[in-house]
Amino acid sequence: MANKDLYAVSRSGPFILAGPCVIESREIVLRTAATLADIAARLELTLVFKSSFDKANRTSVTSFRGPGMDEGLSILAEVKRETGLPVVTDIHHPEQAAPVAEVADVLQIPAFLCRQTDLLVAAAATGRVINIKKGQFLAPWDMKNAVDKVRASGNDRVWLTERGSTYGYNNLVVDMRSIPEMSKFDVPVVFDATHSVQLPGGLGGKSGGQREYVPVLASAAVAAGADGVFMETHPDPDTALCDGPNSLPLDEAEALLKRLKAIWELNHG
């Protein structure tokens, strides 16, 4: 799907960003993408495949980070060829923006980096859709500054993603008011259903999570007006190399997406 068309579709919703947290292997990524493409076709949903070539903010120095940019982009390009799905992936440095944009339809700015001006400006210069995750440390109205940085750089194709706010130690909470608050900036708002149930650093050397609450929070967010839903899903989350405790099992994805579509349709008549 062309970048302009993807953003136009996102303005009227609903849309989904889904896939494994990190590219563990070509086989897992292609299998997951094929399954998600079939589900999206059956449910007539716009779906953007998500997976990261590098997770630069893992809890431990020994944690698996991914295959790196060159191999990761090659696998994501294969996903696009095999499934026809657009793809989204994270960037962490300004110099990654241009090469990643040659493959990715959406460049994602991680929550911890949402205030990094040089990163936002470089991403904006690619002309791609830019998905900025709200920092766990920011109020929703503070995200206007991130949106303004991208727009001032000549790109108005911006999404904002709510992914929970820090609440004490090793815990996140979601204030659903952030969805209508960020919608005031005239951007599609996405709800990250899986990182919102993460327990950051909660297992000592890695993060924990409460994936049983993913359907509850995702449903509430769509009812609150979210235009899109982001969720990490894996064929076997208990063996996933990143964010398994908060990832949705792939065999549960269709039922949840069916429910979310029904709520969205009820919400919008």
CATH architecture title: Alpha-Beta Barrel
Assembly status: single chain
- The number of domains is 1
Q: Residue-averaged pLDDT, rounded?
A: 93
Tell me the strand order in the biggest sheet.
1-2-3-4-5-6-9-12
CATH topology: TIM Barrel
What general outline do the C-alpha atoms trace?
globular
Unreliable stretches (pLDDT < 50, length at least 5) are none
Give the amount of beta strand, in percent: 15-25%
Family: Belongs to the KdsA family.
GO molecular function: 3-deoxy-8-phosphooctulonate synthase activity
InterPro entries: Aldolase_TIM, DAHP1/KDSA, KDO8P_synthase
Main location: cytoplasm
Structure, explained:
There is one protein chain. The chain is an alpha/beta fold and 269 residues long. The chain has one domain (15-268): TIM Barrel. It has helices at 3-10, 26-43, 69-83, 97-101, 117-125, 144-152, 178-183, 214-223, 253-268; strands at 15-19, 46-50, 87-90, 106-109, 129-133, 158-162, 165-166, 172-173, 189-192, 198-199, 208-209, 228-234, 248-249. Strands 1-2-3-4-5-6-9-12 form an eight-stranded parallel β-barrel, surrounded by six helices. A two-stranded antiparallel ribbon has the order 7-8. Helix 2 (26-43) packs parallel to helix 9 (253-268). The relative contact order is 0.15. The model has no long low-confidence stretch (mean pLDDT 93).
